[in-house]
Design a protein that fits this description.
Layout lengths: L21 H23 L7 H6 L6 H11 L3 H14 L6 H22 L7 H6 L2 H34 L3 H50 L2 H10 L18 H17 L2 H9 L3 H33 L5 H4 L4 H13 L5 H33 L8 H28 L4 H25 L5 H25 L10 H6 L2 H15 L5 H5 L6 H21 L14 H5 L5 H9 L9 H9 L5 H6 L3
Bound molecules: pantothenoic acid and sodium ion.
């Protein structure tokens, strides 16, 4: 090896487009063929996708291992595979602290959201909103979810195609079209079973591709200790940042606490995930699958963070955006990966397969969940007499139409120009946050009514878009990347002075509205969730006072009751019988209790409609 202890820069990457060898094409083709094969298998086996129960709910017969792998695949797309290394490469490892948010971000869904939603035996999460509030709230929730998913889907289709195009010159729209079509086909043929089993296979390919890049990168840099030395010298290992400023983009508070709300909006109430919990054969199996997400998600996060570090060590903060004709750090990551893997037969193909696996597994979940909510929330209620055969056919047509819509959305993403990871996290926070707020309002606040929920959702979305669009327009949240390692190695007084000056410029605080716009996007979910709850409660009190009206049994989670579990039993019963639902630790027990006492005033409160 000609490189001496890393002091020589690596040979400059070749700027001509990289070419695939036969082995690369074979690996990529195997990925697509296997996905199609799984779709075909589920189209022809089992119940042959002739009922909506099978097509949309996988017959509610899944076991926890495939469900858990499918759960992590839903929101782990090429955006994370490319975006996280790009983030670590330019800003250091601070983003890794989002792993802390996974603890509560998965425990709360497992023990609060799954028990409530599973026991109601829903098909669509938004059915909950009708049971708890009203039809209008359900439709608004569904439309908000459709909006979120359609935009996110465009981003997911676009990202790998864009990366491939920037590096290999592969036709951008050709790749977008191919991804969209393959995915539409197997989703339409095989239903949720095919979606879950392709997710399992694609998650394995995703991990394998990332691992291959890391191993090759470490080898080319000169071993693990060499990688470590370089990332230390380049200041990429970030210390725990406890700065409480909510406008700091990434700190422990924004990632570890704000991230919990992001996780809740994704793993607690998002249709794609809830549909998987509901497809599990028992509630216990659903909870177990949620627990199993934890190690896999930590592994996924670790792999992408380490990939960013290895890439930094190998290229030492070089910037080749001029050669790529784009200033995107995301394209640069793909460029570096393809440069490292050049000449190793099969590996470039494996990495591209990894990117497309990640994308396909996300898009297929989106298609299927969109087909489900459109069918269950928007169509079925108006055509109660529709035959099962027609409903299933219509679901397939819907899955396909959303596939085509997603291609159109990819074009919209094409017009934006932020880091893909930031765009994804902003969408999750701006649209997912208010939906989370709606569910929290329903589950934890028995006093909230339908008018309050609608007003809360409206206010939450309005505020979310005000801040979100404000930050995009004023470009408030951009932070200066860390210097490349060479600048640090030089360490002459001049550079130090310049960097100190630059640092001062970044640290000068924005004022007024601009400061409001520069709220870290990691707080979006929490902020928008609280807006919905606050406005929802205020309007509920104004329109109905504290009078407790009819609440469908099983839709309220006895939060206060669980928190105040140390109260003596007789006191809790007393509070319960006053109609304070939040003290009732066992709603289901209560239901049976009052079912036996029909004359009781609470029967009205708990009776199903
Ligand atoms: C959703 C999280 C935050 C969970 O770790 C992560 O997977 C992520 O940052 N995803 C980015 C979006 C995407 O990969 O499509
Ligand atoms: Na995915």
């Amino acid at each position: 090896d000609g490189r001496v202890a890393g002091h020589l820069p690596p040979e400059p990457p070749i700027s001509k487009p990289k070419h695939f060898a036969v082995a690369d094409y074979v690996i990529f083709a195997v990925l697509l063929a296997a996905s199609m094969g799984i779709g075909l298998y589920h189209a022809l086996s089992g119940g042959r996708q002739r009922t909506t129960q099978e097509f949309l709910m996988a017959d509610r017969s899944m076991r926890c291992l495939p469900v858990s792998l499918s759960l992590i695949a839903s929101f782990q797309s090429a955006v994370a595979i490319i975006g996280v290394p790009a983030e670590i490469y330019t800003h250091g490892t601070q983003y890794w602290f989002i792993g802390c948010a996974y603890i509560l971000g998965l425990l709360i869904p497992a023990h609060v959201f799954i028990p409530v939603l599973y026991r109601l035996r829903l098909s669509s999460t938004y059915q909950y909103l009708e049971m708890r509030f009203s039809k209008a709230v359900r439709i608004c929730g569904t439309l908000t979810f459709i909006f979120q998913t359609v935009i996110y889907m465009g981003l997911c289709v676009y990202t790998p195609a864009f990366a491939l195009n920037a590096v290999t010159g592969f036709e951008l729209w050709g790749a977008v079209l191919a991804t969209g079509l393959v995915c539409t086909l197997y989703t339409t043929m095989g239903g949720l079973k095919a979606v879950i089993w392709t997710d399992v296979f694609q998650t394995v390919v995703m991990f394998a591709g990332q691992l291959a890049v890391i191993v090759v990168g470490v080898q080319q840099t000169g071993g693990v200790s060499e990688v470590w030395r370089k990332v230390r010298e380049g200041n990429r290992i970030s210390a725990l940042d406890l700065n409480p400023d909510p406008t700091e983009r990434h700190t422990f508070w924004t990632l570890g606490v704000g991230g919990i709300f992001l996780m809740l909006s994704l793993y607690g109430v998002n249709q794609a995930q809830v549909q998987r919990y509901l497809s599990a054969r028992t509630e216990k199996e659903a909870v177990r699958s949620c627990y199993m997400v934890f190690p896999s998600l930590q592994l996924a996060l670790a792999l992408s963070c380490v990939m960013g570090l290895v890439m930094f060590a190998r290229y030492c903060g070089e910037d080749h955006s001029d050669k790529l004709g784009t200033s995107s750090k995301d394209a640069m990551v793909v460029y570096f990966v393809m440069d490292m893997l050049q000449g190793l037969p099969g590996l470039p193909g494996l990495f591209i397969a990894c990117l497309f696996s990640a994308a396909l597994s996300t898009i297929s979940s989106a298609f299927n969940s969109l087909a489900t909510v459109t069918m269950e929330d928007l169509i079925k209620p108006h055509f109660p007499t529709m035959t099962e055969a027609r409903a299933t056919l219509l679901s397939k047509v819907l899955a396909m139409s959303y596939g085509l819509l997603c291609l159109a959305m990819a074009y919209l993403t094409h017009l934006m120009g932020d880091s893909v990871l930031q765009v994804a996290l902003k969408i999750f926070g701006m649209v997912g946050g208010p939906i989370l707020g709606l569910f929290c309002l329903g589950m934890f606040f028995p006093w909230a009514n339908s008018t309050g929920a609608l007003a809360g959702l409206g206010a939450g979305l309005a505020l979310a878009f005000w801040v979100g669009i404000g930050s995009i327009v004023t470009r408030s949240s951009s932070t200066r990347p860390l210097p490349p390692c060479r600048a640090v190695l030089l360490s002459d007084n001049m550079t130090t002075a310049i960097h100190a000056a630059l640092l001062n410029v970044t640290l000068s605080r924005p004022s007024g509205l601009k400061r409001f716009y520069s709220l870290s996007y990691m707080w979006y979910s929490a902020f928008n969730c609280f807006t919905v709850i606050l406005i929802g409660l205020i309007i509920s009190f104004l329109t109905g006072g504290l009078v407790l009206t009819y609440v469908t049994p099983g839709t309220v989670y006895p939060l206060l009751g669980k928190l105040l579990c140390f109260l003596p039993e007789h006191l809790k019963k007393k509070l319960c019988c006053r109609g304070n639902m939040e003290f009732c630790t066992d709603i289901h027990g209560l239901q049976t209790m009052f079912a036996n006492n029909p004359g009781d005033p609470l029967t009205f409160l708990l009776a199903p409609s």
